[in-house]
Amino acid sequence: MWCIDRNGRREFPGGKEDWPGAARTAVCCAAFYPDVEEEQIADEAVSCYNCRYRRWTAASFTCSA
Amino acid sequence: MRVVLCIDDTDNLESRGTGTLASQLARELEENAWGTSRFITRHQLLVHPDIPYTSHNSAMCFVAEIEEGSLEPLIRHAAAFLARESAEGSDPGLCVVDADQLGDPAPLIAFGQKAKQSVVAMDEAYGLAKSLGIHLSEHGGSGQGVIGALAGAGLRLSGNDGRLKGHMAIDTDNGRATVGKICAHADVDEVRSLDGRHPEGDELVLLGEKVKTVLLDGKSVLLVVPADGAADGVAWQTCSKQQLRNY
Ligand code: SF4
């Protein structure tokens, strides 16, 4: 379940260290689009942490797709 | 003369990344015979609700040795380039530091470190750039990218921040190479373990699929960790992306 932040955006509940969760989410997401090489941080190629549409926040990221 | 050129906030969700524009600028600097540049580094700045950014708030930077008389043409070229090539809705900023005339880099480095920890205003960036004789300019949108551009230049000068853009192509024997061979690559200065050890030149490293270095002590450093299982005399392996994420 995604959290909703105070601006109504969906925030990933796993924070910045849930590598399996971010990969699982992206595998099931039709909107995944790989970010540029220098912004990718996950070893799993398909991961929200490597997606162009994730927008980092202090504790996690929101999805802009 | 040595210059540090840094750009920030040139992209949107659909456009080319800021790193690609930095690479193009570095290439054009050489095509114009103004000088030569070395690797491009990426510097992470604060992510905070009060800071506008597309998705990551990072600045891209390179250092170049340029000919006398090339500084002004380079700045004009880079400014026109950013105005032309930056994406719709972005807030591009350009910083060019003449490192030879800068003197003490400490205030610039301190600004870079501050921009990783707290929200900084454009006025402060312009004020510092003016007092240090640094070129700082905005090229569209709100111009907020000047903060990251100035901060990124300071972080590059600190010598201890950021990852290099791109991956190193290193010839291997079955995925392995000696430390000496790795350091023969033009963009790798040193191999170092995550805990600060310096492997000998003949020690073997198992190289991951994508080899990336980080900026430490002003050098492009390939970080390694003890190899899993230590089979076949391989003592080390390169770090995963996950292990490099905080650089
Ligand atoms: S960040 Fe958003 S668009 Fe990208 S993979 Fe995750 S859920 Fe999908």
- DSSP helix fraction of chain A: 10-25%
Mean pLDDT of chain B: 95
Oligomer: heterodimer
**What is the total domain count of chain B?**
2
Beta-strand content of chain A: 15-25%
Strand tally of chain A is 4
Tell me the number of structural domains of chain A. 1
What is the 3D form of chain A? globular
Structural commentary:
The complex is a heterodimer of chains A (65) and B (247). Chain A is α+β, with helices and mostly antiparallel strands and 65 residues long. Chain A has one domain (3-63). Chain A is 14% helix and 15% strand. Chain A has one helix and four strands, in the order E-E-H-E-E. The longest helix of chain A is centred in the middle third of the chain and has 9 residues, at 19-27. The mean pLDDT of chain A is 91. The model of chain B has no long low-confidence stretch (mean pLDDT 95). The two termini of chain B are 28 Å apart. Chain B has two domains: 2-163, Alpha-Beta Plaits, CATH 3.30.70; 168-244, no CATH class. Chain B has a six-stranded antiparallel β-sheet, with helices on both faces. In chain B, strands 7, 8, 9, 10, 11 and 12 form a six-stranded mixed β-sheet that branches. Classes of the chains: A alpha+beta (65), B alpha+beta (247). At the A-B interface, strand 3 of A face helix 8 of B. Bound molecules: iron/sulfur cluster. Residues 25-26, 29, 31-32, 48, 51, 53-54, 63, 65 of chain A line the site of iron/sulfur cluster (SF4).
